[in-house]
Amino acid sequence: MPKQWRWKVWGVVTLIAVSIYLLLPTFVSLPVEALPKWSRFVVPVKKINLGLDLQGGLHLVLGVGTEQALRDNLNRLSAHLKGDLKEEGLEGVDVSLRIEDNSIVVKAQSPEQLDKAKGRIDEVWTQFELLERGGTELVLQLSDAEKSFILQRTLDQSIETIRNRIDEFGVAEPSIQGQGMDRVVVQLPGVTDPKRAKDLIGRTAKLEFRIVDRSMNPDELQNRISEAETALGIRFDANIRLSDYTRQINEQLRAKLPSGRVIAFERKEEGVGKTRTLIPYLLEATATVTGDHLQDAFVQIDQQYNAPYVSISFNPEGGRLFKELTEAHVGEQLAIVLDEVVHSAPLIKEAIPQGSARIDLGTARDYNTLLAEAKDTSIVLRAGALPAPLEFLEERTVGPSLGRDSIQQGSFALLIGGILVVLFMVFYYRGSGMIADVALTLNVVFILAVLAALQATLTLPGIAGIVLTMGMAVDGNILIFERIREELRLGKTPGAAVDGGFAKALWTILDANITTLIAGIVLLQYGTGPVRGFAVTLIIGIFSSLFTAITVSRLFFDYNVQRRDVKELSI
After folding, report:
1. H-only helix segments in 170-278
2. Contacts of 175 by beta carbon, 8 Å cutoff, 6+ apart
3. Buried b / exposed e across 66-84, counting CB within 10 Å, b at 16+?
4. SS3 267
5. Could you tell me if 138 and 115 are in contact, meaning their C-beta atoms sit under 8 angstroms apart?
């Protein structure tokens, strides 16, 4: 036998062995933990990931708070605009945000000063367009192009932040995609705790360090809050979210609070019945140090109280700003605010140069609850804050029993399809049909092995892709067999007929598979969810079927006509 033939045999045998090795964890439960450490580098551990429709899980549609994102960006831009005008020598110009219509009001002391301010805005601040103009007042709004840019950036940042959080949560092959300009679709296969997943995804994780203003005594502050509650007709209870309650109170008291100050609350649970109380704080509206300056966040245990807390460290810039903040406010309280809720407000006894701080979660709840909250808090802080709040618009939980039914039905379809194809090939092409059936079996093994190696996700449409690939793989063999039959009818020997049949069918097979491959790539690039699952197995199947039809089948024919020297082909 030619040496080239032997190398092909060893190559195919090696591929079969590697495929079986990769598929072991999927079909056999390996006791990895009980094995020696050195063997874990040898024993395969990667399984084929099952999609949401096969193993159950969570399907969410999230609405992105675009209005809040626009308002936050407008607030930030107004602060930068004010600083820029001040640097230009226009210190008497006041810049403020008008919440009613999301606009910026620029007030000058004279028309001449306003003209200078407008000239600077027209020159540098091109993201604004003029809405109104009075004698000493300009009203600006964001241009349509700037709004579109902010909304697209907010959506992209939201998707990236959600992905980072889910990666830390440990979900294999999540699907996270934008839908329009204000929605995100999330699919989490295998999630067994939907509530925790939703809490982790939905937390804004906006961390700020603000100085507490003690110009108003606690009784006066509480009286103002009570007046606001009476005017609004609300009370803080289980029927209202703390963030909504805080926002309404601040809007009601805007004219009665010192300029540049807002109210935030610390939530306490006390007593046997865990009575919930709120402790109000008057805080500076802007924060010098935020979660943007965070370098790391991790869980530690307070040895004195045996309570978990989140330890945070800042990057170099954050460490410098934190030192300057604490140095300038020794003797005052520093509120640590996460998602508009005060977690603690310790007294600054001296400047803190180390660039680190801690978030206490209290001691009133049981240890495991606190530990879980500390872990989730550290995850969302490390992954970064969401650029806008998220609203859960749709939630569907696919149970594992439904997933098992899908697997059974999909496997049954695969089995029936395979049996029918195998029987047809044996009935119509006899011995050559058996060669095609062996190649078909290896084709399915190779597809599953590649899925396991790439950690790709197998979905119900993916199983449909495998079934379709089986038909395509047999189609390639049929083209080859018919060409061989034509060569035999011309009176050629079996060896010459095999050579001619494979050579003449090759380009036809390639043309058919290349066109299908192009369609599969388009589906993978632009499809979503189930469509991508179908495209993945289709593309892998095309390459695998080409290999088995052209290489594996040829090896069997060459073995018969060269090694066994058969005089007649069973075809």
Report:
1. 194-202, 218-232, 242-252
2. 52, 185, 186, 187, 528, 529
3. beebbebbbbebbeebbeb
4. strand
5. no
Q: Which fold has domain 66-148?
A: Hypothetical Protein Ta0175; Chain: A, domain 2 (3.90.1070)
CA distances from 515 to 444, 464, 567 (A): 21, 19, 38
What is residue 47's DSSP assignment? P
One-letter amino acid for residue 316 of the chain: P
Scan for tokens 């090896």, then name that residue: 555
In the chain, the N- to C-terminal Cα span, in Å, equals 23
399-563 falls under which CATH superfamily? Multidrug efflux transporter AcrB transmembrane domain (1.20.1640.10)
Tens-digit pLDDT profile for residues 457-468: 777 788 888 888
pTM of this structure: 0.59
The sheet with strand 94-98 has its strands ordered as 94-98, 103-107, 137-142, 128-133
Sign of the Cα torsion 229, 234, 239, 243 reads negative
- Domain layout of the chain by residue ranges: 66-148, 203-396, 399-563
Q: Determine the pLDDT at residue 362.
A: 66
Give the separation between CA 70 and CA 536, rounded to whole angstroms.
Answer: 38
Rank 353-367, 479-493, 554-568 by mean pLDDT and report only the highest.
Answer: 479-493
